[in-house]
Structure formats: structure tokens, C-alpha cells
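so im writing up the methods section and need the LysR family transcriptional regulator record in one place, dumping it here so i stop losing it
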Amino acid sequence: MNLTDLNLFVRTADSGSITASAQQLDITPAAASAALKRLEKQLDTQLFIRSTRQLRITDEGERFLLHCRQALASIDEGKASIQQSQGKIAGQLRFSVSSDLGRNLVQPWLDEAMDEHPDLSLNLIVGDSVSDFYLDRVDVAMRYGELEDSSMVAFELATVDRIVCASPGYLAKQGEPQHPNELRNHNCLLYRLDKGLYDTWEFRDDQGRYRVKVAGNRESNDAEIVRRWAVADKGVLFKSRLDVAMDLQHGRLVQLFKGFQTPPLKVWLICPSRRQVTPAVLMLRDLLRQRCIELLSNSRDN
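--- predicted struct ---
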């Protein structure tokens, strides 16, 4: 059987959509539909029940899906085993990263790695919504925060502090706040993710802890947009130092409240299982760890 057809079948079962699975494999819906029909003919059974409103997998399809997953996983493990035994950095890597890190930092680092390893192929997934490792077929992801699934393989890249910053232009017009409580008098740029709006900023110093409820006239679910607003003199930003490190170095943003501490974040490189830990992933781990540490160190000097 054609491996592409099997892969398409699994993705269609996961997404419940021929169009969605076709987009993932960069083929037309017509080609995807033809591939599924070809697979059904080979098996002499119906895998999906199709209607104008929905696509539903059959009982026979469910049984075949289990074996199909196992077959594809076994092939992937075989490829990884060969690469690991050869120490070869090759093959395709599906890498998920947040918008800020992906566009501003990681992309040029990945270009550097691919120039050094021409047999490596990259599929970069950029966005602030957390990718599903299995549905999106992600091999490795760079993520902030606490790990929610202990079964995954995680490499710590760095511990990052969050900082409040604003552009020199904004501070010249609105004045520079000296204490976190003064943020209530400033236009704070807000970021919204699946878990809600991040409008309570936490600080501490020798005098105590402060939880400041902030507000502003701009919010977005894209962290990169929020960073751009700050650079464009639109307000005050609360962000991971890593996300704004280049802005600090080049003077586009200025850190506020240097005498206060904020809850730190850990940055991880995560794989869904041991079989995804290929030489390419280990190379990526070492590269990202080195670059993050260098960048964080340089940004603290500003």
C-alpha cells in the first residue's frame, strides 16, 4: 500500500475532514478523496461514511486505523533508528514555536542550522495556540511554562524572567512609572490566549508582593502584534525577556522596574516520545540552548 495514502487516512480520521488532511499534506481535496477511494478499493471495504455535512469513520475503518497507526509509527522508528546509528542530521523536522520566538529569533537560527546540514528539511509551524503533537504531526516544539504531560520528553533550554518595558517615545510622552502600582495610570498592552486575558501582572521586592490589575485600549491573541504595538509607542508591555531581547539591545524598548522581580518562565524543547529524539532534535536542542543563553545575557547588560 502507498504510505502517503495511509498517512492521509490517519490524518482524515483525526481531523474528520478530507479538506483539512489535504491541506496538511499540501495536495488538493480531489487528490485526497481519490487516494481514500483507492485505499478502500485495495481493502475492499468502506473506511468512511460521507455525507454533505460530515465525514464519519466506519467500524471497519476504526479497526484498520489502529493497525495503520502502528505501521506508520514503526516506519518512523525505523527511520529514526537508522539516523541515530549513523549520527546523521537529515530528514524532515516539523517544529512548532510561538509567534514572537519564531519570527524574531528562531527562524534565523534554524536557517543557520539548515545551511550547515543541507539534508535537513524543515516544516515550521508558527503561532501562539498550542499545537497538538499528534493531530498536527509535530515532532518537536519550543514552549514556555509548566509541562502538563509528564510522558513527553522535555529539554530545558533556559529560565527566563518577565519584564515590563515601553518604547522611549511612549515614555517621553507619558512619563516613566517608578512603581508597579503606577501602571494603573498607563496604557497597558494586553495579550489573550486560550486560558484568558493576561491583565494581572505580578511583582515582588523587599517590601512585599504586588498583583496589579492593568487595562489598556489594545489587546490581541498574537504576542508578536502586542510587541509591535509597544515598539510603535502605543503602550506598556509585560513580556518574556527572550521575546524582547533584541528590542532591548537595539534601544527600541526600555526595561522598567529593574528593582522588582517577576515569576520566572522556563523554556522547553519538547518531543512527544523518545522515538522523536533524533540527532536533528539533539542538534536543535544544543543550538537553541546556546543562543537563548547568549541572548539573555546580552539583554541584561542593557
